Amino acid sequence: MLKKIIGIMLTLVLVIGVVGGCSNSENEVTDNAGSADDVGSEMVEEAQDAVKESSGDKESYKFGYTCMDGTNPFFVILEETIRNEVEANGDELIATDPANDVMLQITQIEDMITQGIDAIFLNPAEAEGILPALDMLKEAGIPIINFDTEVADLSYVDSYVGSDNYNAGFVCGEDLVSKYPEGGDIIILDSPTMNSITDRTNGFVDAIEGKNFNVVAQQDAKGNLEVSMGITEDLLQAHGDVVAIFGGNDPTALGALAATNAAGMSECLIYGVDGSPDIKAELTNPDSLIAGTGAQSPIGIAEKSVEVMYQYLSGDSVEDRYPVETFLITSENVEEFGTDGWQ
Questions:
Q1: For the whole model, what pTM was predicted?
Q2: Cys-Cys link to 203, which of 61, 96, 161, 169 (CB 3.0-4.6 A)?
Q3: Looking at residue 58, what is its pLDDT?
Q4: CA-CA distance, 135 to 133, in Å (whole number)?
């Protein structure tokens, strides 16, 4: 951009010099001088536009958006909220869905760069695997607001906005301890490549540590309902007497619920993290095995991400991270939050 401005300015100087020379010559045709004046005016306008753009004062922005799984209800409402906020400001949002495939996500990000995005809202399919895309974005000089799930190296991003994921898992563990003070065998369905779920799992494990709970199985459910259901079905054949199952997100918990229902279980407590409408609906059912969810707010994350993005683009300083509150929803307080939408 700086080279462009300098080039425009040099051309402008030459044009003005020609115009000046013409005005000092009595034999020069006045139409030519007028034409040069028009060119000079156009050059001035172009230079002003270039300076304006380089200063961050653009009339409109083209934003990129990518998340690990665009079909997850959590990300559906999050993307919708970001889009509404961006478009209300007169800007454009290009959204992609890699369906939990980090290689596809990298390809999609590369494509968005070629489309000329000015900045990107980014949630990685894999914390480590996404690093090649971050290198491309850095080389292109594209600002990154990382949301919900941290990338492995936060030095690439301009700010991170996300839930207190550790606490979301911790409050689930605390609730389990209160309901099963004697302890028991449990299953954990995590997703090691997703930092957000890893943080939740760590919080849950820390909350139950030293409380006589035995983790008989811990497997990667990839944050997916169908995968979780299949894994849980297999695990229950060997561990049918577990007292609880912790899922790293609500889709995982719902997959575990489907498997326990199919197995005819009636006394297993199932925990998730998200606070989704589907989980909250289960919490209103007295016969459901869903015991609680570490609730977060995708709407809050989206709104804060947009706020931080515009703050950064305006040239104002931003914090390295912005935590968004998490809390426990159970059958005892679910009515406070409703079941027809996100909190």
A1: 0.76
A2: 169
A3: 65
A4: 5
